[in-house]
Predict the structure of ABC transporter ATP-binding protein.
Amino acid sequence: MLAVRDLCIAYNNDPVLRVNELHLKTGEIACILGPSGSGKSSFLHALCGLHTPVSGCVELKQGKVFDQQKNVASADRKIAMVFQDLSLFPHMTVQQNVAYGLHTLSKAEQAQRVSEVLSLVELDSLAHRYPYELSGGQQQRVAIARAVAPQSEVLLMDEPFSSLDPSLREQLAFDLRVLLKKLGITALIVTHDQQEAFAMADKIAVFSEGVCQQWGSAYELYHQPANIEVASFIGEGAFLQGKVVNNDGQKLVETALARLAIPESSSEKNEKLKHGQPVKVLVRPDDILHRDHSEHKAIVVQRQFRGAHIMYTLALANSEEVLCLAPSHHDHQVGEAFGIQLDVQHMVVFS
Ligand SMILES: Nc1ncnc2c1ncn2[C@@H]1O[C@H](COP(=O)(O)OP(=O)(O)OP(=O)(O)O)[C@@H](O)[C@H]1O
Protein backbone atom coordinates (compact mmCIF):
# COMPACT_ATOMS: atom_id res chain seq x y z
CA MET A 1 0.00 0.00 0.00
CA LEU A 2 2.90 2.33 0.75
CA ALA A 3 6.54 1.86 -0.17
CA VAL A 4 9.35 4.34 0.33
CA ARG A 5 12.86 3.80 -1.04
CA ASP A 6 16.05 5.85 -0.70
CA LEU A 7 14.13 9.00 0.16
CA CYS A 8 16.15 12.12 0.91
CA ILE A 9 14.40 15.20 2.29
CA ALA A 10 16.16 18.56 2.44
CA TYR A 11 15.44 22.24 2.97
CA ASN A 12 17.59 24.74 1.08
CA ASN A 13 19.96 21.89 0.02
CA ASP A 14 20.46 20.94 3.65
CA PRO A 15 19.43 17.25 4.11
CA VAL A 16 17.27 16.63 7.18
CA LEU A 17 16.21 13.01 6.68
CA ARG A 18 17.15 9.87 4.73
CA VAL A 19 14.88 6.81 4.69
CA ASN A 20 16.33 3.72 3.00
CA GLU A 21 13.30 1.52 2.94
CA LEU A 22 9.91 1.50 4.57
CA HIS A 23 6.78 -0.34 3.44
CA LEU A 24 3.28 -0.76 4.78
CA LYS A 25 0.72 -3.40 3.84
CA THR A 26 -2.97 -2.60 3.45
CA GLY A 27 -4.61 -2.05 6.84
CA GLU A 28 -1.33 -1.82 8.74
CA ILE A 29 -0.78 0.96 11.27
CA ALA A 30 2.67 2.45 11.63
CA CYS A 31 4.04 5.03 14.02
CA ILE A 32 7.00 7.31 13.58
CA LEU A 33 8.95 8.01 16.74
CA GLY A 34 11.85 10.36 17.11
CA PRO A 35 13.13 13.37 18.99
CA SER A 36 12.01 16.89 18.13
CA GLY A 37 13.48 18.05 14.81
CA SER A 38 14.24 14.51 13.58
CA GLY A 39 12.13 14.98 10.45
CA LYS A 40 8.87 13.26 11.38
CA SER A 41 6.55 15.99 10.06
CA SER A 42 8.78 16.57 7.03
CA PHE A 43 8.41 12.88 6.16
CA LEU A 44 4.59 13.09 6.26
CA HIS A 45 4.70 16.27 4.15
CA ALA A 46 6.91 14.51 1.59
CA LEU A 47 4.54 11.53 1.39
CA CYS A 48 1.45 13.62 0.78
CA GLY A 49 3.17 15.96 -1.69
CA LEU A 50 3.36 19.10 0.46
CA HIS A 51 7.18 19.05 0.27
CA THR A 52 9.24 17.73 -2.65
CA PRO A 53 12.07 15.35 -1.66
CA VAL A 54 15.50 15.65 -3.28
CA SER A 55 15.58 12.03 -4.42
CA GLY A 56 14.09 8.59 -3.87
CA CYS A 57 10.77 6.98 -4.60
CA VAL A 58 7.31 6.94 -3.01
CA GLU A 59 4.82 4.37 -4.22
CA LEU A 60 1.16 3.95 -3.33
CA LYS A 61 -1.42 1.40 -4.48
CA GLN A 62 -2.25 3.80 -7.35
CA GLY A 63 1.41 3.54 -8.52
CA LYS A 64 4.51 5.69 -8.17
CA VAL A 65 3.66 9.18 -6.91
CA PHE A 66 7.23 10.43 -6.62
CA ASP A 67 10.58 9.59 -8.20
CA GLN A 68 13.14 11.41 -10.36
CA GLN A 69 10.68 11.50 -13.30
CA LYS A 70 7.38 11.90 -11.50
CA ASN A 71 5.82 14.14 -8.87
CA VAL A 72 2.06 13.60 -8.58
CA ALA A 73 0.21 16.64 -7.16
CA SER A 74 -0.91 16.43 -3.57
CA ALA A 75 -4.61 16.47 -4.51
CA ASP A 76 -4.13 13.47 -6.83
CA ARG A 77 -2.43 11.27 -4.24
CA LYS A 78 -4.98 9.15 -2.40
CA ILE A 79 -3.53 10.23 0.92
CA ALA A 80 -5.39 12.06 3.66
CA MET A 81 -3.69 14.05 6.37
CA VAL A 82 -4.91 14.96 9.85
CA PHE A 83 -2.84 17.81 11.26
CA GLN A 84 -1.88 18.36 14.92
CA ASP A 85 -4.61 20.94 15.51
CA LEU A 86 -7.17 18.74 13.65
CA SER A 87 -8.14 21.85 11.57
CA LEU A 88 -11.91 21.37 11.89
CA PHE A 89 -13.96 24.25 10.50
CA PRO A 90 -15.47 25.88 13.60
CA HIS A 91 -18.44 27.39 11.72
CA MET A 92 -19.48 24.05 10.22
CA THR A 93 -21.34 21.19 11.87
CA VAL A 94 -19.85 17.71 12.14
CA GLN A 95 -21.83 16.69 9.06
CA GLN A 96 -20.64 19.70 7.04
CA ASN A 97 -17.03 19.18 8.11
CA VAL A 98 -17.13 15.56 6.92
CA ALA A 99 -18.83 16.50 3.63
CA TYR A 100 -16.18 19.15 2.87
CA GLY A 101 -13.94 16.99 0.65
CA LEU A 102 -16.83 15.34 -1.20
CA HIS A 103 -17.74 18.14 -3.62
CA THR A 104 -17.25 15.88 -6.68
CA LEU A 105 -20.16 13.71 -5.52
CA SER A 106 -23.86 14.52 -5.98
CA LYS A 107 -25.75 15.81 -2.91
CA ALA A 108 -27.40 12.40 -2.41
CA GLU A 109 -24.06 10.55 -2.67
CA GLN A 110 -22.47 13.05 -0.26
CA ALA A 111 -25.23 12.49 2.31
CA GLN A 112 -24.87 8.72 1.93
CA ARG A 113 -21.07 8.78 2.41
CA VAL A 114 -21.22 11.22 5.37
CA SER A 115 -23.77 9.03 7.10
CA GLU A 116 -21.69 5.88 6.40
CA VAL A 117 -18.48 7.38 7.79
CA LEU A 118 -20.13 9.02 10.83
CA SER A 119 -21.70 5.72 11.69
CA LEU A 120 -18.27 4.00 11.49
CA VAL A 121 -16.76 6.52 13.92
CA GLU A 122 -19.94 6.30 16.04
CA LEU A 123 -20.81 9.97 15.79
CA ASP A 124 -24.14 9.73 13.93
CA SER A 125 -26.01 11.17 16.88
CA LEU A 126 -23.74 14.26 16.97
CA ALA A 127 -23.92 15.08 13.24
CA HIS A 128 -25.54 18.48 13.85
CA ARG A 129 -23.20 19.69 16.58
CA TYR A 130 -20.40 22.21 16.06
CA PRO A 131 -16.78 21.27 16.94
CA TYR A 132 -16.82 23.41 20.12
CA GLU A 133 -19.71 21.27 21.39
CA LEU A 134 -17.57 18.10 21.27
CA SER A 135 -14.90 16.57 23.53
CA GLY A 136 -11.29 16.37 22.31
CA GLY A 137 -11.65 12.66 21.49
CA GLN A 138 -14.89 13.29 19.55
CA GLN A 139 -13.26 16.13 17.58
CA GLN A 140 -10.46 13.76 16.69
CA ARG A 141 -12.97 11.22 15.37
CA VAL A 142 -14.60 13.95 13.23
CA ALA A 143 -11.16 14.79 11.80
CA ILE A 144 -10.59 11.12 10.97
CA ALA A 145 -14.06 10.82 9.42
CA ARG A 146 -13.41 13.91 7.28
CA ALA A 147 -10.01 12.56 6.21
CA VAL A 148 -11.25 9.10 5.22
CA ALA A 149 -14.57 10.20 3.65
CA PRO A 150 -13.08 10.74 0.14
CA GLN A 151 -11.89 7.09 0.21
CA SER A 152 -8.25 7.85 0.70
CA GLU A 153 -5.93 4.86 0.69
CA VAL A 154 -3.53 6.06 3.36
CA LEU A 155 -4.16 8.23 6.39
CA LEU A 156 -1.33 10.34 7.81
CA MET A 157 -1.69 11.81 11.29
CA ASP A 158 0.72 14.29 12.85
CA GLU A 159 0.72 14.07 16.66
CA PRO A 160 -3.02 13.35 16.85
CA PHE A 161 -3.10 13.50 20.66
CA SER A 162 -0.99 16.59 21.26
CA SER A 163 -3.97 18.76 22.22
CA LEU A 164 -5.51 16.16 24.53
CA ASP A 165 -5.20 15.49 28.24
CA PRO A 166 -2.11 13.26 28.84
CA SER A 167 -4.08 10.93 31.13
CA LEU A 168 -6.47 10.10 28.25
CA ARG A 169 -3.87 9.61 25.57
CA GLU A 170 -2.92 5.97 26.02
CA GLN A 171 -6.56 4.83 26.06
CA LEU A 172 -7.35 7.07 23.07
CA ALA A 173 -4.35 5.66 21.23
CA PHE A 174 -5.72 2.17 21.72
CA ASP A 175 -9.25 3.31 20.74
CA LEU A 176 -7.77 4.89 17.60
CA ARG A 177 -6.15 1.58 16.69
CA VAL A 178 -9.48 -0.24 17.09
CA LEU A 179 -11.21 2.40 14.95
CA LEU A 180 -8.57 2.36 12.18
CA LYS A 181 -8.65 -1.44 12.08
CA LYS A 182 -12.46 -1.32 11.82
CA LEU A 183 -12.17 1.16 8.94
CA GLY A 184 -9.44 -0.99 7.33
CA ILE A 185 -7.34 2.15 6.90
CA THR A 186 -3.60 2.05 6.32
CA ALA A 187 -2.19 4.72 8.62
CA LEU A 188 1.09 6.37 9.45
CA ILE A 189 1.04 8.30 12.71
CA VAL A 190 3.67 10.63 14.12
CA THR A 191 4.02 10.66 17.88
CA HIS A 192 6.57 11.68 20.52
CA ASP A 193 5.25 9.12 22.95
CA GLN A 194 6.54 5.54 22.93
CA GLN A 195 3.63 4.19 24.98
CA GLU A 196 1.20 5.63 22.43
CA ALA A 197 3.21 4.05 19.62
CA PHE A 198 3.28 0.68 21.40
CA ALA A 199 -0.50 0.89 21.94
CA MET A 200 -1.24 1.68 18.29
CA ALA A 201 1.33 0.39 15.89
CA ASP A 202 1.96 -2.80 13.94
CA LYS A 203 5.26 -1.28 12.82
CA ILE A 204 7.36 1.56 14.21
CA ALA A 205 10.05 3.68 12.55
CA VAL A 206 12.66 5.41 14.69
CA PHE A 207 14.02 8.62 13.18
CA SER A 208 17.10 10.24 14.68
CA GLU A 209 20.40 11.77 13.59
CA GLY A 210 18.90 12.47 10.15
CA VAL A 211 18.09 8.85 9.27
CA CYS A 212 15.49 6.15 9.80
CA GLN A 213 17.46 4.05 12.29
CA GLN A 214 15.12 1.06 12.37
CA TRP A 215 11.79 -0.08 11.03
CA GLY A 216 10.16 -2.99 12.84
CA SER A 217 7.59 -4.17 15.36
CA ALA A 218 7.58 -2.75 18.91
CA TYR A 219 8.95 -6.11 20.09
CA GLU A 220 11.87 -5.97 17.64
CA LEU A 221 12.71 -2.40 18.55
CA TYR A 222 12.70 -3.18 22.26
CA HIS A 223 14.40 -6.58 22.23
CA GLN A 224 16.47 -6.42 19.03
CA PRO A 225 17.43 -2.76 18.61
CA ALA A 226 19.53 -2.26 15.46
CA ASN A 227 22.04 0.04 17.11
CA ILE A 228 22.88 1.90 20.28
CA GLU A 229 20.76 4.96 19.27
CA VAL A 230 17.60 2.84 19.05
CA ALA A 231 18.50 0.90 22.21
CA SER A 232 18.89 4.17 24.14
CA PHE A 233 15.80 5.80 22.65
CA ILE A 234 13.31 2.93 22.96
CA GLY A 235 12.25 1.78 26.41
CA GLU A 236 14.35 2.02 29.53
CA GLY A 237 17.61 0.32 30.32
CA ALA A 238 21.31 0.64 30.98
CA PHE A 239 24.51 -0.46 29.27
CA LEU A 240 26.97 -2.63 31.18
CA GLN A 241 30.63 -2.64 30.17
CA GLY A 242 31.63 -6.10 28.97
CA LYS A 243 34.53 -8.03 27.47
CA VAL A 244 34.25 -10.84 24.93
CA VAL A 245 35.82 -14.10 26.11
CA ASN A 246 36.32 -17.18 23.93
CA ASN A 247 35.76 -20.24 26.07
CA ASP A 248 36.27 -23.56 24.21
CA GLY A 249 34.54 -22.25 21.09
CA GLN A 250 31.69 -20.73 23.10
CA LYS A 251 31.63 -16.95 23.08
CA LEU A 252 30.86 -15.27 26.38
CA VAL A 253 30.61 -11.70 27.53
CA GLU A 254 32.06 -10.94 30.92
CA THR A 255 30.24 -8.19 32.86
CA ALA A 256 30.29 -6.94 36.44
CA LEU A 257 27.16 -9.00 37.11
CA ALA A 258 27.71 -12.27 35.29
CA ARG A 259 29.32 -14.07 32.37
CA LEU A 260 26.70 -14.17 29.65
CA ALA A 261 26.72 -16.68 26.82
CA ILE A 262 26.14 -15.34 23.31
CA PRO A 263 23.62 -17.76 21.78
CA GLU A 264 24.83 -19.87 18.81
CA SER A 265 21.98 -18.57 16.68
CA SER A 266 22.91 -14.99 17.45
CA SER A 267 23.16 -12.29 14.80
CA GLU A 268 25.96 -12.00 12.24
CA LYS A 269 27.10 -8.87 14.06
CA ASN A 270 27.67 -10.87 17.28
CA GLU A 271 29.53 -13.64 15.41
CA LYS A 272 32.20 -11.12 14.43
CA LEU A 273 33.04 -10.30 18.06
CA LYS A 274 36.67 -11.07 18.89
CA HIS A 275 38.26 -12.41 22.08
CA GLY A 276 39.17 -9.53 24.42
CA GLN A 277 37.01 -6.99 22.58
CA PRO A 278 35.29 -4.43 24.84
CA VAL A 279 31.50 -4.27 24.33
CA LYS A 280 28.38 -2.75 25.85
CA VAL A 281 25.56 -5.04 26.95
CA LEU A 282 22.03 -3.65 26.98
CA VAL A 283 20.26 -4.54 30.24
CA ARG A 284 16.55 -3.75 30.41
CA PRO A 285 14.73 -3.33 33.76
CA ASP A 286 13.01 -6.67 33.14
CA ASP A 287 16.42 -8.39 32.75
CA ILE A 288 17.17 -7.72 36.44
CA LEU A 289 15.07 -9.73 38.88
CA HIS A 290 14.72 -8.70 42.51
CA ARG A 291 15.61 -11.62 44.80
CA ASP A 292 15.90 -10.76 48.50
CA HIS A 293 18.23 -13.70 49.17
CA SER A 294 20.47 -13.37 46.11
CA GLU A 295 24.24 -13.31 46.73
CA HIS A 296 24.45 -10.39 44.27
CA LYS A 297 23.69 -7.14 46.03
CA ALA A 298 23.35 -3.65 44.60
CA ILE A 299 22.64 -0.39 46.37
CA VAL A 300 19.44 1.56 45.74
CA VAL A 301 20.43 5.02 44.46
CA GLN A 302 17.03 6.15 43.23
CA ARG A 303 13.45 4.90 43.33
CA GLN A 304 10.44 5.93 41.32
CA PHE A 305 7.06 4.76 42.59
CA ARG A 306 4.78 3.80 39.65
CA GLY A 307 1.80 2.29 41.43
CA ALA A 308 1.99 -1.46 40.79
CA HIS A 309 5.78 -1.27 40.40
CA ILE A 310 8.78 0.66 41.63
CA MET A 311 11.56 1.46 39.17
CA TYR A 312 14.82 1.16 41.10
CA THR A 313 18.14 2.58 39.93
CA LEU A 314 20.81 0.36 41.45
CA ALA A 315 24.56 0.83 41.78
CA LEU A 316 26.73 -2.27 41.34
CA ALA A 317 29.98 -2.80 43.26
CA ASN A 318 31.99 -1.23 40.40
CA SER A 319 29.62 1.83 40.39
CA GLU A 320 27.90 0.89 37.13
CA GLU A 321 24.15 1.47 37.36
CA VAL A 322 21.26 -0.73 36.24
CA LEU A 323 17.47 -0.46 36.45
CA CYS A 324 15.11 -2.95 38.05
CA LEU A 325 11.32 -2.90 37.91
CA ALA A 326 10.06 -4.63 41.05
CA PRO A 327 6.51 -5.12 42.36
CA SER A 328 5.78 -2.17 44.66
CA HIS A 329 5.26 -4.28 47.77
CA HIS A 330 9.06 -4.82 47.63
CA ASP A 331 9.59 -1.42 49.16
CA HIS A 332 13.29 -0.53 49.56
CA GLN A 333 14.75 2.85 50.41
CA VAL A 334 17.68 4.74 48.89
CA GLY A 335 20.96 3.43 50.36
CA GLU A 336 19.62 -0.07 51.13
CA ALA A 337 21.25 -3.23 49.75
CA PHE A 338 19.02 -4.89 47.16
CA GLY A 339 19.34 -8.54 46.07
CA ILE A 340 19.39 -9.04 42.29
CA GLN A 341 19.63 -11.78 39.71
CA LEU A 342 20.42 -11.24 36.06
CA ASP A 343 17.95 -12.93 33.73
CA VAL A 344 18.84 -11.74 30.24
CA GLN A 345 16.45 -13.33 27.73
CA HIS A 346 17.60 -11.30 24.73
CA MET A 347 21.32 -10.60 24.75
CA VAL A 348 21.97 -7.32 22.94
CA VAL A 349 25.63 -6.42 22.56
CA PHE A 350 27.15 -3.34 20.94
CA SER A 351 30.81 -3.03 20.09
N1 LIG B 1 9.99 24.75 5.91
C1 LIG B 1 11.19 24.51 6.45
N2 LIG B 1 12.28 25.19 6.06
C2 LIG B 1 13.51 24.95 6.56
N3 LIG B 1 13.75 23.99 7.48
C3 LIG B 1 12.70 23.26 7.92
C4 LIG B 1 11.38 23.50 7.44
N4 LIG B 1 10.53 22.62 8.05
C5 LIG B 1 11.31 21.89 8.89
N5 LIG B 1 12.60 22.29 8.82
C6 LIG B 1 13.75 21.70 9.56
O1 LIG B 1 13.79 20.32 9.28
C7 LIG B 1 14.12 19.57 10.45
C8 LIG B 1 13.03 18.54 10.72
O2 LIG B 1 11.84 19.24 11.10
P1 LIG B 1 10.47 18.48 11.36
O3 LIG B 1 9.44 19.50 11.68
O4 LIG B 1 10.19 17.57 10.23
O5 LIG B 1 10.86 17.61 12.65
P2 LIG B 1 9.89 16.83 13.66
O6 LIG B 1 10.58 15.54 13.98
O7 LIG B 1 8.51 16.76 13.10
O8 LIG B 1 9.93 17.81 14.92
P3 LIG B 1 8.83 18.02 16.10
O9 LIG B 1 8.74 16.71 16.83
O10 LIG B 1 9.46 19.09 16.95
O11 LIG B 1 7.54 18.44 15.46
C9 LIG B 1 14.30 20.59 11.58
O12 LIG B 1 15.67 20.86 11.71
C10 LIG B 1 13.55 21.81 11.07
O13 LIG B 1 14.12 23.00 11.57
